[in-house]
Amino acid sequence: MLQIKKPICFLMGFLFFICAINTVAQTATQPIPQRIASLNICIDQLLWELVPHERLVSISYLTADPIWSPIAHQVRGMPLNHGLAEEIVPLKPEVIFAGEFDAPNAIELLQKLGARVERLPLPRKLDDINEQIFQLANMIGAQSKAQHMVANINTQIAELKAASAGKTPLTAFWYSSNGVVIGAGTLEHEFMQLAGLRNLAAERGMFGFNQLDLELLLSAKPQILIVEEGSDDAFSLAREYLSHPALQHADFKVINLPAGLSGCAASVIGDVASTLKQELTK
pTM of the prediction? Predict the structure, then answer.
């Protein structure tokens, strides 16, 4: 049996190698687009960092809204779209970027009209973020800036991990809107592990996002409560919960982090790592 399996494994590996070469060659021969449109607020933020702004012929209207976007004040005057094909077609973009779940009807129509549409998957773990940045950079000819961006992210994450080395892990909840705590299988959980924190939600068998009664949260006696900041104009129920008298007098440290990790991780991951390190070393 071993003599049969080895040639098969070798052949499969060889075929995978050939496919990889073909993929790289196709990417390399694809012309660098000079007219770029985006239907996604998170991709907008990466493009804003990676390419000259004059190459952006349209970005999502959400990127210009300070409730949702940290760069809203920077993108004033940029052409905006609401994810509609009729808004994009007259601009004649050479490439249109969209997220994993954006505007399926518009994208289908754009593709039927012969437009080049590139979908980027939603990052689900820390390694996915660097891959997303490089994937986007390769398609727009911004490899150098992407390498610098990823290097900064990796440095900040390494500093967060180093700051917790050798310390006794503190217990914590990552508290989100509507009284939700964040468990295993999430970027937030990975961050907590890097920071040397024990995720009490994960230890209770919670996966993803779960609602937790205030009484249960208090009875768990966390040492740290992590809350993502929202825009001053945005209504945050998590903030309302934090004003509850029971929480006001609870014996734990509240850490406020920049908002957006769950939605636009690539654009805020470095700031989140840096803030978390600073708060935990105070």
Answer: 0.78
